[in-house]
Amino acid sequence: MCQAGDDTTDGPDHDDGHARLPDATPAFSALLEDSAEDLYEHAPCGYLSTLMDGTIAKVNATLLDWLGYRRDELVGRRRFSDLLTVGGRIYHETHIAPSLSMHGRIGGLALELRAADGSRLPVLMTSVVKTGVDGSAQLVRTTVFDARDRRAYERELLRARDQADLERDRAQKLASTLQRTLVPPILPTVAGMEVDAYYHPASNDEVGGDFYDLFPLADDTWGFFLGDVSGKGAAAAVVTSLTRYTLRAAAVSNPDPVAVLHILNTVLNHEYQGIDPRFCTVVYGLLTREDDGCTVALASGGHPPAALLRADGTAEFLHIPGGQLVGALPDAHFAGIEVRLRAGDALLLYSDGLTEARTGGRVRHSEEELLDFLDTVAPTTATALVEAVKGLLTSFGDGVDDDTALLALSIPSAGTTRR
Amino acid sequence: MGRVDVRSRNNVVVTGRDSGPVVLLAHGFGCDQNLWRLVAPVLAEQFRVVLFDHVGAGESDLSAWSPQRYATLDGYASDVLDICDELDLRDVVLVGHSVSAMIAVLAANRAPSRFAKLVLLTPSPCYLDDGDYRGGFSRSDIDELLDSLDSNYLGWAGAMAPVIMGNPERPELGAELTESFCRTDPAIARVFAKATFLSDNRDDLPGVSVPTLIIQCRQDAIAPPEVGRFVHEQIRGSELVTLDAIGHCPQLSAPASTAAAITAFASADAR
């Protein structure tokens, strides 16, 4: 470090840096007994003292040499800010001067000084306010280090940061674009029913593994599903895409939801054999409209149970025991059930981002707690249900660390229905 | 959406005489409410003094910052009005330093009934030269400033990153927070710098209907005296005081005369 002062007292063992040199010969002592004046003038850094109004009061030969000025051109004639670029001057007025006034010192400043020939010298500076015996500020002492090499390096770091920012923006845009292709842009209108959906991505940087869809099959018949593929990112998106189109194609020719899941299982098994097994959990449903509501045939492959919120204000899970992961085993077993929805009933499909959210630290929001919550929400409509669960997710804050998908269907309650 | 907690968002601090007239102090680009620390105690003897940090500065709630809201001075003016609403401040003497002088003009023009008086401390309605108007700077000067902010990014990162990430197990960070005075996240500083130095509020000046005092310094590299005179000419009935002070922050370089000028104007009978 460059320090002003008179370190001229030199004993034989006072200075680690020189201790291993031959004993203090007269010639060597003479070398060390530089005058304080010479140490100041020809220090390997620039020295500058300014009055409190910025007027340059003293400057060492090193800095004069770097900047190409004569002493009489600066001392008493120029202010420190005159040596700065205009941008640096604004920075000085808005940041450096107030900081010096507050703390009496400021360090690590990266600025450019303007040399006499108009060229610019990148420097790192530290300034300290010298106070008089009465505590009042008298002048500012500044050390100036040539920072050309360092600044080139820092500029490279800044360039790399800007590049990284750009790449991240690009990756986020790609992820969100890809994500949008995995869920319907808007849900179709189902006559006599209310439908709503929501997708909460856990990350802006990566495509999530959750998916859902709702689509017409024939008059009064609709297919829908909601699921979660293993993993995240581009590889998961490929599986999601395959899963979604397989389900839609299989639904066209198969009225039995269990059979639809078997087809998906076979396709995933064929596609992802061996070292890169890929599987998913999914609830698939076939909805048939009736005069007084609808019948829903559901099949599940290892997915959290759908929830049914009745018009009478009760809520229950539709457990489908025995459904295994889809795509994990060649001869997986799937099971199905059938429920009827009547006026005022609502059905909710969701992914495990909801039931595995951390609430208040490390405790995970359980299925039981979800059911308690849904109990307080029932009876409700698809839109209100999705809103309520969104609110619940928001209340978890950072606790939601997985993607969460919601799909809700409801039959309007009597009086508001039957158009 | 929950209601915005304005007090913590803007780190609002109230001192002084409860029954006194309200003086609301708005800091400028670069630092935070600490800039008023030599002036506020003097004003506090007579006034109810309300201090705050602009969002992005000092100890404001950084999570409330957004590049959209704070890309224009209107966003900051909205915050000033939010603070007046939240604290139910009336007949406010609004003192705006530097860029906050124009933020104060915008706030007063939007809700003139809120404010008894305006004090514009080293104001500039437009920093860029434009035809006959001399703001003092060119676009490339401002780009240089943005470079300065970026160049000091590394120093900032070292000092501030641990503070912002939150490190309850490191109590010494309290000290670093004080050190962080005038050190702002460069991404935030860049947006504020652009809003500050690229805004043109010359057309807002004639709309000021509140009694206004302009305080400027004899010599100021950022807001030179002729710019102060321009503001004085544009605001009908305004008063102009030129302090025998140097620099852009007379509340630091000449705190006594700055406080005296504010006090005299704020306590005079409204005309």
TrEMBL record, chain A:
The keyword Coiled coil applies. Residues 1-22 are annotated as: Disordered. This is Sigma-B regulation protein RsbU (Phosphoserine phosphatase). Residues 32-84 form the PAS domain. Residues 11-21 have a biased composition (Basic and acidic residues). It comes from Saccharothrix tamanrassetensis. SUPFAM superfamilies: PP2C-like, PYP-like sensor domain (PAS domain). Keywords: Coiled coil, Hydrolase. Residues 150-181 form a coiled coil. Its EC number is 3.1.3.3. One of its GO terms (molecular function) is phosphatase activity.
